[in-house]
Structure formats: structure tokens, C-alpha cells
Design brief:
7 helices, three-stranded mixed β-sheet, single chain, 58% helix
């Protein structure tokens, strides 16, 4: 039945409004490839869950960042860093902490928890970045940068 509905959806998706389209991609577990009325990328429920699980874990485990730290926006560097952590996690499920993840995004100083990242959170998030459009990847990274800019700064005095 799922295959039948998926084939119908794929055939008629262009004739659906954004609300109906979103309902189908959520039900079928597909990525949302549409833009909202303002031209911003949209996320499906599964994409939003992957983003939220990752960002909530990251932000709840970062305490501060150094005044002279910089936030990485380079998608390739972020993906490579996360991929390296996933490789470590595949060998030792207790090897990767949120501090390690924070260091992928924040260079030159970040204070973060040594709590272990739940298995699958990194892989699901990396998959979201790698399998979405370049525009979606950029929007996701920009949203994370926005959140990281709100982290308390350790001032040098």
C-alpha cells in the first residue's frame, strides 16, 4: 500500500499545495523539497526531528565559548568533522562527547559537556546535511550558527 501511495504522490506532487505536499512527505518519510511562501526551505517532520535532536543536544551541552572563538560555516569542514566523529563512535560508542561535536562548529575555544552523544544522533544529522539540497544545507548551518552566536562569551577580563 505504501508503494502505491508513494507512486501516486510522486506522480501528482506538483499539483499539491504546500500543506497537502507536507502532509504526504511527512506520512511517507520523504524529505521536503519545497519552499514556503517567503521562499525559505521547508523541512519534513523527520528532517525537523533530526535537526532538533542534534541542535537541542548541542546547545544544552555548550556552556560558553571564548571571546575570540569563531563559528565554522564551511559545510565540507562540518561534514568531515562529523564523519570523523561517527567513525570513532562506530568503534567505541562512548568515545564521542558533545564537547567533540562543539569543536566541529566552534574553533579557538568552547566549553562544553563531556556527556556522550546518543548513538545515531550524529549519523541522522549528517545524513540530513548530505542528502538535502545545497540550499537546505546552508539554511540548516545558518540556523545552527544563529544559535551558537547566542552562547555566552567568556570575556578576557
Amino acid at each position: 500500500m505504501d508503494g502505491f501511495i508513494r507512486s501516486l504522490f510522486l506522480k501528482f506532487q506538483e499539483s499539491l499545495g504546500n500543506d497537502a505536499y507536507s502532509m504526504f512527505v511527512d506520512a511517507l518519510g520523504l524529505p521536503n523539497e519545497r519552499h514556503d511562501a517567503s521562499g525559505h526551505v521547508m523541512l519534513s517532520r523527520s528532517e525537523r526531528d533530526a535537526y532538533n535532536d542534534f541542535v537541542q543536544g548541542l546547545m544544552s551541552n555548550i556552556r560558553s565559548r571564548d571571546f575570540d572563538s569563531s563559528i565554522t560555516t564551511d559545510a565540507i569542514a562540518i561534514e568531515d568533522g562529523l564523519d570523523r566523529l561517527i567513525a570513532l563512535e562506530a568503534i567505541d560508542e562512548h568515545a564521542v562527547s558533545w564537547r567533540d561535536v562543539a569543536l566541529v562548529f566552534v574553533k579557538d575555544g568552547v566549553t562544553a559537556s563531556s556527556s556522550i552523544v546518543k548513538a545515531g544522533v550524529l549519523q541522522t544529522f549528517l545524513s540530513l546535511l548530505q542528502h538535502g539540497s545545497d540550499e537546505k544545507e546552508k539554511a540548516i548551518i545558518n540556523a545552527i550558527v544563529f544559535r551558537l552566536e547566542e552562547v555566552d562569551l567568556d570575556l578576557p577580563f
